[in-house]
Structures are given as C-alpha cells and as structure tokens.
Amino acid sequence: MEITKFSTVKAYAVFFAIAPAALSQIAEMPRPKAGPVQILKSAELRPGMQAVAWTVFEGAVPQPVPVEIIGLWKNAWGPRQDVILGKMGGRAQQTNVAGGMSGSPVYVDGKLIGAVSLRLSVFSPDAICGITPIELMLEINDFDQSRPPDARTPDRAQARAGLELPGDLLAKVVAAGVSHPNVPLMTPIETPLTFSGFHEITMREFGPLLRQMGLNPVQGGASGALQSPKPARGWQNALQPGDPAAGVLLSGDMSMTGLGTVAYNDGRRVLAFGHPFFNLGPVNMPMAKGEIIMTLSSAFQPTKIANATEIVGALHQDRHSGIMGVLGDTAEMIPVALKVRTLNGNESVEKEKAFQFYVFVQQRWTPFLMMMTLFNAISGVNDFSEEVTYRFRGSVELDGQPALSLATMQAPNEMPVPAPMILAGWWAEKFSRLYLNAVQTPKLKRVNASVDLLPQRRIATIENAWLAQAEVAAGSEATGKVFLRPFRGERLVREFKVRIPSGLPKGEHRVLLSDADTLNRMQSAAGFVNRYIDIPQTVSLLNQERSNNKLYVSLLEARPTVYADDKTLPSLPASVLNVMQSGVTQNRPFVTAGESASQQQAIPFDLVVNGSYTLKVTVK
User: Based on the domain organization, do 370 and 470 belong to the same domain?
Assistant: First the structure.
C-alpha cells in the first residue's frame, strides 16, 4: 500500500510540475473549426491521457481547457453505452463543471473523443466531468421520427435521471450521510434555461416545475435579433465547435432559450449538449447562437450567464446522447400578439401594453408556453393587484380550419391560486385540446389575445328569482326578475322573458337561470368522452362554449338530450334514443341528459356570473 501511495503522489507531482508548460502549449492551440475531423473511439482511451476541451467562459470565443482522462465508466449510460471520466484543469478548476458547458468538445492529439455532458455531485473540490463518446452522438443522425418514451414535458414533472457511482461499499457510505439511499452522483449538467422579458413572480411560480425537469431557470437576456424564426445572415459560418448554442422556445418580447455548447459541426449539421434537452425525439425548434456574459463559479451550482443572439438554423433531433440541428433551416413557430390594457371605472383605457412573440410548436410545450406568457404579461404590469378582474378575448387562426374565438372573465376568489394563474390555465387548456387531438395535428397560423384589467372584484352569484305569472298558456311569454348578489355592493336585478312554445304539453315545467358552466358541462363531457373527434369538431366545441359573464335563461323539458361530439340533439324521441343506445346507428360514444334545455335569453353582465336557480311554471 505504501508503495502505491508513493507512486501516486510522485505521479501527481510530476504532472503538476509540467502543468505550466502544458498550459502554455494549450493556450496557443488553434481553435477547432467546422468540417471533417478525425475521431478517437472511447475504446482506444487510456487513463492518464491528456485531452483538451473547448468552451466559452466570456464572450463568444471558446477557450482551451486541459482535461486528464481518468478512465472509462462501462455501461454508465445504458447497455454498451460508456461514459468517459475526466478531470478538468485550467480555468474550469475555478468555475467547476458549469451549466452551459454541455457539449464542449474534447480532443486527444487533435482527435475528437466526445463532449462534456455530466458532472460529479455537488461541493466536489475537483472538476470531474463525464464525457459522452462522439460515437454515441453521431448515432443521432440515424434517427428519424421515432419518439422516446420518457420525454420531459411540463405535464410530466419528474426528477432528472442521474448516474449512480458503482460499488456497494461506496453506495453505503454515501447513503449513510444523506436521507435518500440512491443519490445520483454523476448527473447531466443542468441546461441553463434563460428567460428574457420575464418577471420575478413568473420565475417564482414556474421555476420549481422547470427544476424538476432538470432545467436551471435563470433570468438573462436576448438580443433584438432574436425576433423572427428565420435564420440571420451569416448562418453559414455559425456554431463552430466550442461555441455557445441555444434551443429557442420563445423569441420576441419574451424569450426562453436553453443553452449548451457545440460539440461537432460538419459544415451544415451540428451536434451539441451531449445529453438530451427534453428528450423529445424529432423536433422542429429554432437554433440560435449565444454569448456568455460570465461563468459563475460555484461548488454547488456553477452556471453560465448568457444571452441568445441570432437564430441560425433549426434543431431536428433531441435524443439521449445530444441534440442535432441543421444550419440554415427554418423552424415553424406561432406568432402571438398579446395586448394588456388597464381600464378605469368608466371603461376608459388608462394604459396599454402590446407584446409580440413567437412560440415553439410542440403538443405538450405549446400549451405550457401560452400559459406562462399570459401569466407573465398580466403579472408584470404596475396595475396588478389582488382585487383586479380580468376580461379576456382571444382568437386562434388555423390553417384550413375555422377560426377559434374565445372569451371569458376571471375574478379573484377564495382559492389559494391567484386569478392570473387560473386565467392562464384556462387559456392553456384550449391549446391542449387542439394539440392532443388524436385524429390530426393542428397548424396554427397566428394567435391574437387581449386582457382588460378592470377595477374591483367583479363577481356575482345568482341569489333568487320569480315569475310574474305562475300559470301561462302555450304560445305565450312569461316574464320575471332575477336577483344577483355581487361581491360588496347593492343587489343586482334584471328582468327576463321566457317564450312558451305552442306545442309544449300542459302541466308543470321548469325555467333554469344559470351561469355558463352549468350549460357547458354536459357538452364538454361529450367532447372528452370521444377521443377521436377531429380538429374542426374540437374547434366547433370550443366556439360553442358560453361566456361566464352572462346569465342564461333556459326552458327545461322532460325529454332527453344527446350530446355527441360537437352536436347537441335536444328533445330526442325515446325510439331514436333506444336505437342510438343499442349501437345500431353508430359505435361512437355520446352523453345523455334526462332533460332538454332550450336557451331563451343571455343577459350580459360586466362581471363573472356564478350559480343557478330553478323556477316552476305551469302550462294551462
């Protein structure tokens, strides 16, 4: 044992003695360029080999970093998928293995061996990194449209997977000092998700979810060039090995970019990260250049603080061992125009802010991004307060389909969730219903939305109602009054009329005075029951939803109503219903209600209407 210790100490002494000369030689090395490069496979590596990694610490020019190869960690990524372990020197000893270094290319004697992608634990005094072998990253080019089963999306909040150090004894020692027995020590380097144009409250509300997905949300910036998804001039020479690279989820007045480093560029195709971004498989996401403001040194969470600059292409693959993009390609994004207005008690506009941005297209991420941007736009105005009511109008233009038109109001209530978050969730749910359609994928051309901030908590509950005549003749009209109790203030009174159809049978019937949810409930249920409604039917269902700032007057009849897809079949004869239930005419599911509600009147209010009330009327 003494001989082994002496040999190890002596070896390190020799290494540090020659380190200054080695560092001087490394500093004079020419930086790698795009184009063909020789590859050294991981099987040819040996412990003690000296390598060089290239990464950016400030600005946009990568710097060389010495790396000593520790060894090969067999099957660490999975069956026959090894990880190269290395110890970084130079400036990386000060910063540690920082978020944003993912993808930094590593060379031995000018031959590419892989990309920095993993880091060892936290509070480690040594900058130990894991390197994804380049042969694993090159496999990304072989994939087409297959989708990984474990994609990280906002609806699947999950802890990031890590790699455990091997050895039962080591695992027991580590477990003795922590609360969880399976602490992953070698983990993928966090991807800094840089937010520009976002307020602190938005980061606080959405940050925990993003961190559970293995992302590191940080406030940063983006240049004015990060507007259109079209590649900027000079894209042909962009993203050289070692350069910062970013995937763009949002661009414009609000931007969201995930930062990493370019590992390989063959002149058109680019490989980066060395680990997945979201592991979405085939994607179509804008790919941008970046500049590093500074690299934050930390034993706990070192990270690069960066700006995304210009879009230069599109990412097409997001896989287990990295991401792949093509320079010059254009990724489709959804243009969004969002207006936020502050109104006074006289409905006059006091302030107005207009936002323009583009949203990444993906069935799980698009609804989440729509939710986050709406919440951010509302919460960031100076007029935001607890007692504000929000009046929302939105339209979604689809390619080759009818437009979607939506309206609602949201007032504060006693729930712990703030009103802007509830409104943003309502908005996101509409996009989820479009993008999770099981029949076809929608193509959105543009989105326009406006939010009015109204003073006071504008909400009222239906309290009481009465009819002027308890008995009416068929073919006549019944009149009455309905009373609503607002949040603070005098009781509201409205008159209403109910037309009694001439063919309505004699006897007792009911008049329903209700909010929108009461009438929407059955029809919405029918849309959820049948998973195979297409996009036009989904749009039709959404357009039929009643607005919650109206009181609806309906006459109820004791005849069943069938809700099938986006169709409502009221007062259905029993014989027809029996045939439908037997499955003779169709095998598509539907929802049945015991009564038919014939909507007679919609009384508008400038507040949210809640509740329902039923009156009896006798037809003579």
Answer: no
